[in-house]
């Protein structure tokens, strides 16, 4: 039931969802994950944008990494409070497109048994302007890859969901603001070197 509430609430807030995707397209254009050095900051910035969006439309959304003085959460990225009592932990992933597998957990060792029963993933796809909300317990084993390095979902999972579980897919209904941004502003955005900018800011 909680996931149905989450999906319905997001669909009810299409204008704010448009704002989220504008932010995500800006991040994608300026810090493209096609460059290997951008993959980590790209993912983190999209994660921050999604948490901010969820915090705006729900009771609150807490970034779990901010609760750590060192290290980070290995499974979940945020805790979403639907109200004062009811909450759900979410893992957030961002991808350019629906190709390739989606890493959900960095495993480090097959000897460690990961309990993913309660895992719920939000996967945002830039090119299709879609969000998938995926409860791990409902995923057939044939879509899961368990390697020494990580646990992943096969790319075919998203195809399967699009065909058979459309209730788990949130599609952006593009508004005037989004269309104007893509037609007029997006093309003028330039790639930035985030590490160079940070170095210049903090170097003596």
What is the strand and helix layout of this fold?
Layout: H1 2-12, H2 14-30, H3 39-57, E1 60-63, E2 78-81, E3 87-95, E4 102-106, E5 120-125, E6 130-135, E7 144-146, E8 150-153, H4 156-164, E9 169-171, H5 176-185, H6 194-202
Parallel strand pairs: 3-5
Antiparallel strand pairs: 1-2, 2-3, 4-8, 5-6, 6-9, 7-8
Would you mind describing this structure in some detail?
The chain is an alpha+beta fold and 204 residues long. The protein has helices spanning 2-12, 14-30, 39-57, 156-164, 176-185, 194-202, and strands at 60-63, 78-81, 87-95, 102-106, 120-125, 130-135, 144-146, 150-153, 169-171. It has a six-stranded mixed sheet with strand order 1-2-3-5-6-9, sandwiched between helices. A three-stranded antiparallel sheet has the order 4-8-7, with no helix packed on it. β5 and β6 form a beta hairpin. α2 (14-30) packs antiparallel against α3 and α2 (14-30) runs parallel beside α5 (176-185). The longest helix has 19 residues, at 39-57.
What's this, in brief?
This protein has helices spanning 2-12, 14-30, 39-57, 156-164, 176-185, 194-202; strands spanning 60-63, 78-81, 87-95, 102-106, 120-125, 130-135, 144-146, 150-153, 169-171. With 204 residues, it is α+β, with helices and mostly antiparallel strands. It has a single domain, classed as ECO RV Endonuclease, Chain A.
Terminal CA distance reads: 54 Å
Which strand order do you get reading across the main beta sheet?
1-2-3-5-6-9
Query: Could you give the order of the helices and strands?
Result: HHHEEEEEEEEHEHH
The count of helical stretches stands at 6
CATH architecture: 3-Layer(aba) Sandwich
Radius of gyration: 17 Å
CATH level 1 name:
Alpha Beta
- Residues in β-strands, percent: 15-25%
Q: What overall form do the CA principal axes indicate? A: globular
Largest sheet: 6 strands, mixed
Mean pLDDT: 91
Weakly predicted, low-confidence segments:
none
Number of strands: 9
Examine the coordinates and then state which fold CATH places here, giving the name of the CATH topology. Answer: ECO RV Endonuclease, Chain A
Secondary structure class reads: alpha+beta
Percentage of residues assigned to helices: 25-40%
Number of domains: 1
């Amino acid at each position: 039931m909680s996931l149905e509430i989450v999906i319905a609430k997001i669909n009810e807030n299409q204008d704010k969802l448009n704002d989220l995707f504008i932010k995500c397209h800006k991040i994608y254009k300026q810090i493209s994950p096609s460059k290997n050095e951008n993959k980590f900051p790209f993912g983190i910035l999209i994660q921050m944008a999604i948490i901010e969006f969820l915090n705006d439309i729900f009771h609150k959304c807490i970034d779990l990494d901010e609760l750590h003085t060192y290290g980070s959460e290995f499974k979940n990225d945020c805790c979403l409070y639907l109200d004062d009592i009811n909450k759900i932990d979410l893992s957030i992933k961002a991808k350019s497109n629906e190709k390739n597998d989606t890493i959900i957990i960095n495993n480090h060792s097959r000897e460690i048994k990961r309990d993913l029963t309660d895992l719920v993933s939000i996967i945002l796809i830039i090119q299709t302007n879609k969000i998938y909300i995926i409860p791990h317990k409902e995923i057939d084993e044939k879509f899961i890859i368990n390697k020494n390095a990580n646990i992943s979902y096969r790319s075919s999972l998203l195809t399967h969901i699009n065909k058979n579980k459309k209730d788990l897919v949130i599609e952006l209904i593009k508004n005037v603001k989004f269309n104007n941004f893509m037609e007029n502003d997006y093309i003028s955005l330039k790639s930035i070197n985030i590490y160079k900018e940070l170095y210049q800011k903090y170097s003596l």
